[in-house]
Amino acid sequence: MSLIVVTGGAGFIGANFVHHALATGARVINLDALTYAGNLDSLHGADANPNYRFVQGDIGDRALVGALLKDHRPNLFINFAAESHVDRSIDGPAAFMETNIMGVFNLLEAVRTNIDNLPDGFRMLQVSTDEVYGSCAVGAFNEESPFRPNSPYAASKASGDHLVRAYHRTYGLPLIVTNCSNNYGPYQFPEKLIPLMTLNGLEGKPLPVYGDGQQVRDWLHVEDHCAALMLIAERGVLGETYNIGGNSTLPNLTIVKTICAILDELHPDAKGESHDSLIRYVDDRPGHDARYAVDTSKIERELGWKPSVSFEAGLKRTITWYLEHEDWWRKIREKNYSGARLGLGAS
């Protein structure tokens, strides 16, 4: 891909994708509104790369997006921009409807009105979530599973996915949807589960666990996700959906206890106590999905992709990254970010 326009490239997955794409030699234009979770510090190094350009703006600004498409004629347009925290969607759903539905609509309209001026082979990827499928008691979601979203966040992402499908079928636009499981890795905003538990543990703060902590999630390292997205961008079938998962389904409580064990090893408590003594069980949130799991057989069969980072290795690498990058997360936490009732970001 010679030129990629990335939206939301100052967020967690987007920033990791920017670094990944630049490492392949691609040129990248990053459009980001820099809301609470957008962080230009996550792009350190990229900002000095001559193949990188940052543009501050909103995906709802159809004129701005249209101008980027018209003036730069990218080969790939990939949308990471989204409101993505379930707790925040419960407390304030309006922003989720605006960004995840109307924002996607405006992106699609910008592509539709400029498609004749874009290069041959142009395609757009909509990056979405497994939460559109709802809760899965047994088995795993595949690309044909019905949408049954249970939170305002999940419903807004499902709506965006439906719009992408409709614009492909109605207008013939070269579009692909991806639905990923829970990501983890460097640069993740500290209200999400793994960084929250890691940083609270480092600071001796309580580790809040919803309900009994038995909610099951599939965990995907962000580097594996980025590699899958690049492969789909190059070889994925237009109009199709691809599920991307880490094949690591574990209860939230197991994740928290594993983080505690790694912290006990890498950053022992001064009093010699185990970090799991900080675990506190709190009331569950409304509509909390019990279990997610995704079937990755389609992307494995058609594109030859499999996750390469084991959860055990990836989690230790991630915790080590936070230990070594206190300057990155300390600035965020000192802003006293708000929004989630607990800041407990397990999807």
Topology:
Blueprint: E1 3-7, H1 12-23, E2 27-32, E3 52-56, H2 62-72, E4 76-79, H3 86-91, H4 94-114, E5 123-129, H5 152-171, E6 175-180, E7 182-184, H6 193-202, E8 207-210, E9 216-221, H7 222-235, E10 241-244, E11 249-251, H8 252-266, E12 279-282, H9 297-303, H10 311-324, H11 326-334
Parallel strand pairs: 1-2, 1-4, 2-3, 4-5, 5-6, 6-10, 7-9, 8-12
Antiparallel strand pairs: 9-11
Helix pairs in contact: 1-7, 2-4, 4-5, 6-8, 6-10, 8-10
Which key terms come to mind for this protein?
seven-stranded parallel sheet, globular, Rossmann fold, three-stranded mixed sheet, 40% helix, alpha/beta, 347 residues
Average residue-wise pLDDT: 94
Structural class: alpha/beta
Approximately how much beta-strand content do the residues carry? Answer: 15-25%
Q: Percent range for helical residues?
A: 40-55%
